[in-house]
Design a protein that fits this description.
Layout (H helix, E strand, L loop, with lengths): L7 H20 L7 H8 L3 H7 L3 H23 L2 H6 L1 H18 L15 H24 L5 H20 L7 H22 L2
Length: 200
């Protein structure tokens, strides 16, 4: 960022810019996001965008940084080793809910579920987000189940994660009763997998 905002009004403008950039990243290819398009979408002038950001690369980096900070905070706060140890099924059901919550706040985070293998920012962002979440899950389960062989534990986690991602990728995009039922069934399935894999 060229100049971090110091006043409330400036902070609100930067927030509008980043929120619009995240929405545009979710809706369109990154190559289509220009400063002009971002200004039109956010209702902020081009000059104001350049007041806070050197270029679109700096805007994308700020969007990624804001998303990572929120993701890290939520995972550390709600997906703890205590939850994993007490109920592995609840751990993954909570993760499913958190992905939904985070996607409402950060629309571009949909790539967590629907892996985006495009080159450039979107592809790299999708891979980094997935790696970050998987690393958190593995380290949390390592602390929750230290007596379990690492390779065996990672293999079991891979099965649970694959079941969860497979079910979420098939989630209907339209928000309706069918989607709600699909989510409910996904949680039942993933919870059963996780309990079977980690509890005696």
């Amino acid at each position: 960022m060229s100049r971090p905002p110091s006043q409330n009004r400036s902070r609100a403008r930067v927030e509008r810019i980043l929120t619009s950039a995240a929405a545009l990243l979710a809706e369109t290819g990154e190559e289509k996001i220009t400063v002009r398009a971002l200004a039109a979408h956010s209702g902020v002038s081009i000059a104001t965008i350049y007041q806070f950001f050197d270029d679109m690369e700096a805007v994308r980096a700020a969007v990624a940084e804001r998303t990572y900070a929120d993701l890290r905070s939520v995972l550390e706060d709600r997906l703890t080793e205590e939850v994993a140890r007490t109920s592995p099924g609840d751990f993954f059901c909570t993760l499913i809910d958190l992905i939904g919550e985070l996607q409402r706040r950060h629309p571009q985070i949909g790539c967590l579920v629907h892996a985006d293998y495009a080159s450039g920012f979107r592809g790299a962002f999708a891979m980094e987000l997935r790696k970050f979440v998987i690393a958190h899950i593995r380290s949390t389960f390592a602390r929750a189940f230290p007596q379990m062989d690492k390779e065996d534990r990672d293999r079991r986690l891979e099965v649970v994660q694959s079941a969860m991602l497979g079910a979420l990728q098939a989630l209907p995009s339209r928000v309706d009763a069918r989607r709600s039922e699909h989510l409910r069934q996904t949680k039942v399935l993933v919870s059963l997998y996780a309990k079977t894999a980690f509890l005696p």
